[in-house]
Amino acid sequence: MLTRLQVSVEDYPELKSNEQFINLQWQIEEMENEFQAIRRTYNAAVTDYNNSIEMFPSSIIASWRKHEQQELIEIPESEMRNINVTELFGK
Fold first, then answer.
1. Distance between CA atoms of residues 19 and 29, nearest Å
2. pLDDT at residue 82, rounded to an integer
3. CA 56, 61, 62 angle in degrees (round to 5)?
4. For the whole model, what pTM was predicted?
5. pLDDT digits (tens, 9 = 90+) for 50-74
6. Residue 69 φ/ψ region, left for φ over 0, alpha for ψ in the -120 to 50 degree band, beta for the rest
7. How many C-beta atoms lie closer than 10 Å to residue 28's C-beta?
8. DSSP characters for 43-56?
9. Is 24 exposed, middle or buried (0-12, 13-18, 19+ CB in 10 A)?
10. What is the mean pLDDT of the chain?
């Protein structure tokens, strides 16, 4: 997302030097890194859980308690879109 934002900003050179815009870029990058870390942690826990309810003998207990496989978090391509800088800054 950040790389797409940087490419979109090429048309706005005055934005690139703006301190607030630089701060915005940094915040977006930090959020993306945090979301990736959270998603990786969640997916690792779900994978461990899914594996544990399939293995014997925990599979017997899991079936008694009606535990079900959980889905991993995956971001669809349709949600990964370019950022329109014009919309962000009302230009």
1. 15
2. 58
3. 90
4. 0.62
5. 999 999 998 899 999 999 999 999 8
6. beta
7. 14
8. HHHHHHHHHHHHST
9. middle
10. 79
